Structures
1.
Amino acid sequence: MTDRVIPLLDVRTATLAPPPLELLGATETPDGLVADRRSRPLRDLRISVTDRCNFRCTYCMPKEVFDKNYHFLPHGDLLSFEEITRVTRLFVAHGVEKIRLTGGEPLLRKNVERLIEMLSRLHTPQGKPLDLTLTTNGSILSRKAQSLADAGLRRITVSLDALDDAVFRAMNDVDFPVSSVLEGIEAARAAGLTPVKVNMVVKRGVNDHQIVPMARHFHGSGHILRFIEFMDVGASNGWRMDDVVPSADVVTRINAELPLENADPNYRGEVAERWRYRDGGGEIGVISSVTQAFCADCTRARLSTEGKLYLCLFAQQGYDLRTLLRTQATDAQIAGAIGRIWRGRGDRYSELRSAATVGIKKIEMSYIGG
Ligand code: SAM
Ligand code: SF4
Ligand code: SF4
């Protein structure tokens, strides 16, 4: 028996958002200063380049939902690299400085290196290169790391939920061995995609016994291990508050074995809280998306695989930029649409999360990107 909620409504196609052409209004020359209703600027853009994945992580793409009958997007529905680059340039003009490619599994998008090359040529209005990074499950990273770096990728984040091979194989649910991901992480280091960040989603009773072994493994390695609280994203992962191990507990458990001290954030609004090993063995981060909402500083927009703009990871509706890109809309019109959408943003789901919000149908993480 399973108590998972199977989505009845495909939220990718739900028509809650205004029809795309209604987004066209006044043209705009962005000044890099756009802010939303809560005075949050637009600084980060996460771009999902595919909704497909070769893993079936139980908390993200459970096999029972994402099976052979699941309707993944056909290729023609995806934004092309030219479309992604065009719209990214407009986001950058509005203030975006940091781009993260995600998915699904972004390394499965054919020729993703070409997209990286195109994006790496963009600059902020002040002439700075973008902070261009990517989140991957690491499964094919050992053969891709060098070509990604050559294409202009600057850093990389690898997801790894356990060091124990049996636990890892059960979590990715496709029997993928941990050794191949560890090889990918070392290949990323060798290619200069550093510091490599390693993200571990912690789910109570599933992999929380791996917290300390993971910390020990990466202690002194130069890689930055980050622990993420399991979130109620999407509609298919059967989330319950009991499954969440609060970051404070993660820190307590590691501190008992490898003493830690708090470190200052690198910049205002940094999502991960930093902790440093007292013996000089590097640092870890904890991302407390559930127990300590960081919506007040959330400057992230998300572009889905098929070109919808989402203002929050937990949003129920997206704004269809693809139609604008595929009609005769000018850059100034699309920039005007992006500006108006961002100025209207009031999202702060994690501050409002409650038993009542958990069941709301939200967009899947594999489609919107993490
Ligand atoms: N496939 C790539 C990967 O796994 O790194 C990129 C996409 S994945 C959706 C991005 C990140 O979201 C991963 O680090 C993953 O562990 C995290 N994630 C997925 N579902 C999550 C959930 N329910 N709670 C917290 N993090 C989640
Ligand atoms: Fe795939 Fe990443 Fe989701 Fe795992 S977390 S199923 S690797 S998209
Ligand atoms: Fe940002 Fe939404 Fe997450 Fe809050 S819940 S931090 S607004 S993505």
2.
Amino acid sequence: MSVLIVGSTALDSIKTPKAENPRLLGGSASHAAVAASFFSPVKLIGVVGEDFPKKYISLYRKHGIDLTGLQIEPGKTFHWSGEYELNMNNRRTLLTELGVFEKFTPHLPAAAKRTPFVLLANIAPALQHHVLDQMARPKFVVADTMDLWLNIAMDDLVKLLKRIDGFVLNDSEAHQLTKEDNVFAALKKIHKLGPKYVIIKKGSHGSILSGPKGCFICPAYPLHTVIDPTGAGDSFVGGMMGYLATARGSVDANIRRAMIYGSVTASFCCEGFGLNRTIKTTRSQIESRVKELEKLTRF
Ligand code: AMP
């Protein structure tokens, strides 16, 4: 089964204490789509401007990503720039140029409307609603978000939570949403807002799932060097959804293992700027890190 992914398709200029890289392929949907493509067919819904480099289109294609739903509009591609502090955890946004994103209305091609697995990657909640409005009874819908939408679009976001199966957010966003310091208390409160599955990401400390079968503590793959963590969260949820879409059996039966695959895919993302390392990853490299994580967590 395939995954439909909607989100930002961007050019990212990223600065770390060690290096600076302008206009890399980025955006929540790009990271999630490439991650998911290791496991299942992917349909990408997004918008880019006429300045979007052809080599990035080729890169999506190389990963077998269906681009029928990628709109190319007159104007500039969404451009985001961020700078990391020495600890590589704290990041500040230097620039956000919306470009063609400002007037983006996602239009789903007919075939995309029947995709069983849907990932509403980080994008304005109103656009996430608009995609759901066009879908014909998807099997499993997961949404991601960011602090910006909690600040400026809380009503839309709360309405969205009633329409989705799973919600993925990081620990600071969970605190912002629920005002709870305790992650388990926050999970409980978020369930009450609608989603059956809630995943709180804790960066290099992994993530926690709360679902119908209880909680699962998913580790992050231990990395000794992080080059650029941009898109790690998107790679995590993209990898998880890609794995779920092809796994046999129910979501309940597979979601823990799917999170491990997402976690491993995200680890590759952190080892290079933008998507540079992820695109060189092979399925067998993913499998060997999954085995390592299995050994590290067995007791
Ligand atoms: P993450 O590191 O998982 O938080 O995701 C970083 C990605 O989010 C980058 O590739 C950016 O292009 C993208 N991004 C940054 N700001 C926004 C925004 N306002 N809406 C959608 N995507 C964004």
